[in-house]
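Notes from hallway chat w/ T.B., transcribed later so I don't forget. T.B. wanted the structure written out for a chain they're using in a teaching module, and asked if we could keep both sequence and structure tokens in one place. Agreed to drop them here.
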Amino acid sequence: MEADETSSDDASDGTDRTTRLAYRRVSWRRRAIATAAAVLVVAGAAGTYAVIANSQQASGAAPRPTGSAVPAPPSTRRSTTTTTLAPTTTTTIPPVTQPKDQVMPSPGNGIRQGNRGAEVLIYEARMKALHFDPGPVDDVFDQDTRYAVTTVQKYFGLPRTGVINAAVQLVLTHFVYTPAEPRSEPDRVEIDLDRQVLTLYQGWQPRLLTTTSTGSGEHFCGGVDGCQYAITPTGHFHFYQLIRGWQKGKLGTMWNPYYFNGSDAVHGLQSVPAYPASHGCARIPMHIANYFYTLVHNGESVFVVGTAKRPGNGYVGPAPKPPPTTTTAPTTVAPPTTAKKPTTTTHAPPTTKPTKNTTSTT
């Protein structure tokens, strides 16, 4: 019984081993093939992603995320957000855009009011581009052009002659803006008492530069406040009232006055001298006053900068300086001999004429 059982077991074990070996060989082959296929799939996918990523980077496009492990897009998004945030914080108050240089033609002995020609046209176009309003850009040097030239001379501290000379040619070739309140409101008006120039800004950029004439500092009477001194005070003010057209007052008339400090206003007038000559207002040329009020609004800031006049400190312009040289000449030229001769010949008429004049004056 035991021998039969062992022989049967050996026979059964023999068949099982062969089948088991066969099964094992098949399973090993399947596993190897599956493993090799998986490796090939992974390698192929990685190679395909590398090729696509390289091609996209070469074309300038951002790589698209394929799968879950793609760290590139988040980093690029952060960089874009930081680059967009930086300009907004640094450009809240942009600097003044400075104009490019432009070579201007030689003025020769000077280009002045009454002249005509291509040179006048070129200078008018340049001043117009720099926001000095010379009136119509043509080849005629008129009063409006003279006002613009005077403004350029005031802006750079040149003699206020209103004539285009070599100095004006130089500053218009290499022009630079110099705002007085660059960190203030984007829309504002600056009145420089030293330069006697009014500058209007929009969006922190110069929009208009014009000559002005402010308070002379002299004593006067007849205004709404009685006797006072013609002083334009410095400080920070705001436009608060506009009167369209001519406004008649006790001291004269004003064209389109826009008030910013009590009775002080920016207004047009036929006469805008190159020196302080007003009762306290800021005079501007008529052709600019025609539209100035359209560029500003109620509540807009007005900065009056510079040195205000002191009471009784009337302006003494460059004109009174030459007379001392002319007064010394007559004193040295007039000899005593010539003075004696006219006294003998002309002494009789003065005795009769003064009596008539005194009676007429009285």
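Follow-up for T.B.: Residues 45 and 51 are 10 Å apart (CA to CA). Might be a good example for the class.
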